[in-house]
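User: Second chain of the day. Same drill as before.
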Amino acid sequence: MSGLIINPFQVQPLITGGPWDFSGAIYNSISKVIPNMTQARGLYTVPGGLIAFAVDRIATGDIVRKYSMSPANDITSLTQVDTFALSGQSLANDAMDIFFSPDGLKMFIMGFSPQDQIHQYTLTGAHDISAPTFDGQYGDTFGGNPATFGLFIKPDGLKAWVTEGTGQIFPVTLTTAWDFIATAPSTGTATSPGGLPSVNWRDIYFRDDGTRFYLASFTATENAVFQFDLSVPWDETSHDAGTVISLPDSGNNSGTPPFSITDVEITQSGTKATILNPLDNTLYEYDL
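Assistant: Same format as last time:
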């Protein structure tokens, strides 16, 4: 089987698929075990598709791993080119997601319990993790829930979103673009997408124009991408009822290891998506 399963939480629209639309997603049989990975968590692909980063959770100290790809967005060509150890930093064993500013000079790590905060670093060169400087951490504990997972930052750097384990999305408004430390941001009221079961949101990703966002779910009964359209771009409160799409790995949801989703990345063209399965440290590619 190479396709999708749409769950009947609501009346589903006609499936048309196309760029930026998971409703017609097809697994294209391309996958890649992430090199040198112990326990994969967050994934970030630099626009252009030649560089990617992943967070590796290790008992002795988490690591940020940098990879090259050639040709662009070819996950089968992933080659590790650098690492940065988070041991000794503010975040040692609790890294869950990673994000960068467009110029590649700021790196952000989303922490997990008890470090459920946004950790900010300044780099000496674009996407150069050889010697990051720790700037500090945004200290909001996001409703007191320590199960924070995903992080996405708007292209202008003035708004961010954090996902956590009880099905909530927290918006964060920044005063200074791409800087959580210089001027204190403010966290707004959490949004819980209605009409869906309580789920464990592991990642959040937005379409490039802000009119659609995606949530990766990781629970015992539902490993899926939840897709929502927004009537107001970049306003998470304007979401529609959403569509729930379960994506099988290699066509076998009950295979070994079981399939789960903790990260979603979409190419700039909106025609390909990469799903991270942390249970086998593997990336799976889908055509949209």
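Confidence is low (pLDDT under 50) at residues 1-15, 249-257.

User: Great, on to the next one.
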